[in-house]
Amino acid sequence: MREDDVLYALPAPHIALITLKRVEVRNAQDTQMLYAVHDAFKRAAGDDNIKVIILAANGAHFSAGNDLREVDEIQNLAAHDTIGMWSDFAAPGQEGMMAREREVYFGIAEAIRSVPKPTIAAVQGRCISGGLMLVWPCDIIVAADDASFIDNTLVLGIPGVEWFAHPFELGPRKAKEMLFGAEAVSAQDAAQLGMVNHVVPAKELREFAIALATRFAKQSSFALKLAKEAVNSFQDSQGREAAMKSAFLAHQLGHSHSKEVFGLPIDPRNLDAKLLKGTKYER
């Protein structure tokens, strides 16, 4: 078992800071890291002294996305207590893969969104695909001026990441452009679209996030919880949950199609063979 995939700190009164720390792989997210993130949020949520939670990352980039080099994800998943009710992770066909992705991707993103305390994501460098499923569930996004947000899953033959918040975060037309082109959305453009709250110089990112969290922490805990519930309920009344579940099923169809056509859960045609070398997708 690796240690320190995620660091947990208390940088200021009533503030918890959760930091991704797999810098050697640009904070690529495997099963162990995702459960570590979940456990850290759960720890902060259960601490009555904590009012606001910050999610940050060490290194030049927030996250390179899901770790394609993880080859024993089923065994790794079995080493943790599941957060949801899905099971049969080793089932044949698409059933097992769907169950796993419902647990560690969709499930953990929903769990972060549901934390009854304000959450702030502090993002620098690239935040790619799976990284969006950690950032978008947070209530506030503060981005360094060098940050960019990318969902390149269409390159893999998949219609978007498992937790499909794109139209809610960017609006339908920009979401389509982001997906169709698999191109980066800059921090500045994301701020104009309302996805990012603040853009700050990279060297000031962590300090700014802590200062913002400190401002929020001056409010009563109960009022913060109620305000968050009110806004989340507003989104849900617009059909957010139903739309995401439908997109999740489309994502699974993309995997199933690729398995039938290419013998892999992704379409390898547009990928550099070097990228797949040493991964479970190497041919």
Automatic annotation (TrEMBL):
Record key words, sorted: Lyase
**Pfam families registered for this protein in UniProt:** ECH_1
Gene Ontology MF: a single term:
enoyl-CoA hydratase activity
Q: Which InterPro entries match?
A: Enoyl-CoA_hydra/iso
| Taxonomy, superkingdom | Bacteria
What CDD domains is this protein classified in?
A: crotonase-like
Question: EC?
Answer: 4.2.1.17
Name of the featured protein: Enoyl-CoA hydratase
